[in-house]
Design brief:
Two copies of one chain form a homodimer.
Chain A lengths: L2 E6 L5 H17 L7 E5 L7 H10 L4 E6 L6 H17 L4 E4 L9 H8 L1
Parallel strand pairs in A: 1-2, 1-3, 3-4
Chain lengths: ~120, ~120
């Protein structure tokens, strides 16, 4: 079973956080995964945190979590904060795997998407 | 002449800001525009600001600037900060047009791109 975890910044605006949840549902549909196989976590302003979200995955038997940093640039959140939070989780689950993918802004097709929106 | 302005959050990490500049170049190439026709501005941590960037466009004769909020969710930056900064510019250039596009995360193809990266 593939378990994705989309990690977003999080916002004080509830609607912005809901937008991420909707995006996760669409990604699950795109990948023909169940809704629970594409989880969401937030760094700030919303819940669950990365730690709580990954604990929940591993507690229900998932063996590997693939983290998708939902960020456009490799700023401090991507370079420092997300890996730091994940290191803390790894200590609790030594027999499980956590993989961090490149941030979404690094996608080779982002420029094309952006051009299409203009 | 179409003038785009990609507005990003900005980062303390120089590499993250350069990433946005590289993205702008790719968007220009995608749209067969000159490099200067796709400008970049930052809300925080880097320059130019939205005001300085738009002033520069209008000062060189551009009649309309199309602002592309390079954000994944409609948080406070998208809903409040960017429009606020642009309102301030509008007062200085009453005969020019500024259009704000939806933030990039609202793109109908973002879920597909995200699914492809997983």
């Amino acid at each position: 079973m593939k378990q994705l975890l989309i990690v977003a910044h999080g916002s004080r605006r509830v609607a912005a956080n809901k937008e991420v949840l909707t995006m996760a549902s669409k990604v699950a549909a795109n990948l023909q995964l169940a809704a629970e196989d594409v989880a969401v976590a937030f760094l700030e302003f919303s819940e669950p945190s990365i730690g709580v979200a990954i604990d929940a995955c591993f507690s229900r038997g998932v063996k590997e979590v693939v983290v998708v940093p939902y960020f456009l640039s490799a700023g401090s959140h991507v370079i420092n904060d997300i890996p730091h939070e994940i290191d803390k989780v790894r200590h609790r689950w030594p027999d499980k795997n956590i993989t961090i993918l490149p941030h979404v802004g690094a996608s080779g097709t982002m420029a094309k998407l952006l051009a299409q929106t203009c």
